[in-house]
TrEMBL record:
GO terms for molecular function: carboxypeptidase activity; serine-type peptidase activity. Coiled coil: none annotated. The keyword Hydrolase applies. This is Contig61, whole genome shotgun sequence. Residues 171-286 form the LD-carboxypeptidase C-terminal domain. It comes from Pedobacter lusitanus. The keyword Hydrolase applies. GO terms for biological process: proteolysis. CDD domains: Peptidase_S66 (cd07025). Residues 14-129 form the LD-carboxypeptidase N-terminal domain. Keywords: Carboxypeptidase, Hydrolase, Protease, Serine protease. Belongs to the peptidase S66 family.
Length: 299
């Protein structure tokens, strides 16, 4: 089992940092919402950092993250935004104090590097969910799932997929995140064990051939064969190609896993979309899938 950090309570202090790309807009509305949740919000120096495309150079961003990993009064760390850069600093970080005093780290996209590292190297749960930079466009439901995940309130998911699923029922530990980052972490200490897990994947801005290549890499390495279930989130903003690939992301993923017998669901409301609902990675879940209907609940 993975370690569950203590849930937040009103009055707790949380930190917002920028471990990857720099902010391009104010996150004041997000800070106000977090304060409405009863939290004291501390912002790191990287929030105003500016080094080309990054929120400060690698050493600056790593040092900012380290401050809050080591500060035991901080009960959660939220990545302000994604982009690219987490993988450049993760090996500069010392997680020894964090390991003794675990706290929630939350985000999505590039933050997958940290979320996966927590599971693989530190055996600690984390949250895949909205980030302050996306609060303004996030649906009320997505923000509420993030709040409930942080505060330890019960919630589950039920929706209807527009793409036919492969039915079935499975129980297992939930892992995953951004597909490109999961591939980039292969062979490192941040690579999670996929065996008997329920895998969630999403991505944005990737052409169909790239999605096909990444999923086939997971298949050829044996990772897809050992799963208990597959949750396919949003694969959106796919750039048009001069010569069509011939398959949508959903169609190519379905073909790649067609020989396995575990449940597979599509159109899960998570990823680079407004309705990016929070997922607790490292938590045991129950997945129930019919032809179009999906229910995911935490055990």
């Amino acid at each position: 089992m993975y370690t569950q950090p203590p849930y937040l309570k009103k009055g707790d202090k949380i930190a917002i940092v920028c471990p990857a790309n720099k902010l391009k807009k104010s996150i004041s509305p997000a800070i106000a919402m977090l304060e409405d949740w009863g939290l004291e919000v501390i912002t790191g120096k990287s929030i105003s950092g500016d080094h080309f495309n990054f929120a400060g150079d690698d050493e600056f961003r790593a040092a900012d993250m380290q401050v809050f990993l080591d500060d035991t009064s901080i009960k959660a760390i939220l990545a302000a935004r994604g982009g690219y850069g987490g993988i450049r600093i993760i090996d500069k970080l010392d997680f020894s104090t964090f390991h003794q005093n675990p706290k929630w780290i939350a985000g999505f996209s590039d933050t997958t590097a940290f979320l996966s590292h927590l599971l693989a190297a530190l055996n600690t749960q984390s949250i895949h969910g909205q980030m302050p930079a996306s609060f303004e466009t996030g649906t009320p439901q997505s923000l509420e799932t993030l709040r409930k995940a942080l505060f330890g309130e019960d919630f589950s998911y039920a929706y209807t997929s527009s793409f036919p699923n492969r039915g079935g029922q499975a129980e297992g530990i939930l892992i995953g995140g951004n597909l490109s980052l999961l591939i980039a972490l292969q062979g490192s200490v941040s690579e999670v064990d996929y065996t008997d897990k329920i895998l969630f994947v999403e991505d944005v801005g990737e052409q169909e051939y790239a999605i096909d290549r990444m999923m086939r890499m997971l298949k050829r390495s044996g990772k897809l064969a050992g799963l208990k279930g597959l949750i396919v989130g949003a694969f959106n903003s796919v750039p048009p190609q001069e010569i069509p690939f011939g398959q949508t992301p959903e169609e190519l993923i379905f073909e790649i896993v067609k020989e396995y017998d575990y449940p597979v669901c599509f159109n899960f409301p998570a990823g680079h979309i407004d309705d990016n609902q929070a997922l607790i990675l490292g938590r045991e879940v129950m997945l129930k899938v019919s032809n179009n209907d999906v229910v995911l609940s935490y055990k």
